[in-house]
Amino acid sequence: xxxxxxxxxxxxxxxxxxxxxxxxxxxxxxxxxxxxxxxxxxxxxxxxxxxxxxxxxxxxxxxxxxxxxxxxxxxxxxxxxxxxxxxxxxxxxxxxxxxxxxxxxxxxxxxxxxxxxxxxxxxxxxxxxxxxxxxxxxxxxxxxxxxxxxxxxxxxxxxxxxxxxxxxxxxxxxxxxxxxxxxxxxxxxxxxxxxxxxxxxxxxxxxxxxxxxxxxxxxxxxxxxxxxxxxxxxxxxxxxxxxxxxxxxxxxxxxxxxxxxxxxxxxxxxxxxxxxxxxxxxxxxxxxxxxxxxxxxxxxxxxxxxxx
Length: 308
Prior knowledge:
This protein is an alpha/beta fold. The chain has helices spanning about 65-75, 95-100, 110-115, 120-125, 135-145, 150-160, 170-175, 190-195, 235-240, 245-250, 290-305, and strands spanning about 15-20, 40-45, 60, 80-85, 90-95, 180-185, 200, 205-210, 210-215, 220, 225-230, 285.
């Protein structure tokens, strides 16, 4: 708590409140029957520290996006047995393919040599209307599928559920729509293909008992550790906690385009909901996103704030 020089609480009366929360709310931890009976450790991915203390232990990671992959890989590298519980399909791509077919044209040393500065690259990305973005991305991912056929064939043999999104438009549009549901390969996919990361795909968790996890398809997994890599709630959860539930309800959803795809219900917004622009609550703004968005849209946001 901030105080005055004589130790009294400092009361601030800001004209604007900017919630710079990335794009995440609070950790989402499902309520699973039998959780109170489980004698091992249950953590959300946000509270997972490292795999060193789990050497020789049986670990179940619920989820299959970036955090789940990274945690499984870390556990395996430290000598633990890791099983990934994959409930739904995930987009996977290698950084090499993304650099060659997508981002490298704007963000690379070669691009910089052609005169495409970071600011110009950011402006180029921001100038593309979200409505036409999916149709422009599908051909890129068709090329990526051919480039990394070895990866997708291997994942399919392992039973991993993968696609390039409901319309084949890949990671960029998935990120704008829901901010999750993808993984950029840094080694965990190879571990799945090789069987070093075990996989339980197509089922969720039914219940826990003292030492195991039972899935909805009846599979039983022994477990010393359960990690819920199950994502986060909406950013307006912070508004509910810091201001009031009524304010959060008035603002509505934060992030997403209204694409009417999974986790991004309509109606169509055309731009990210309640990001870097006035909300229904005067003086309340949301700021976040990836590096490109934070760099670029913070400028627009600053100009808007300055005019009020």
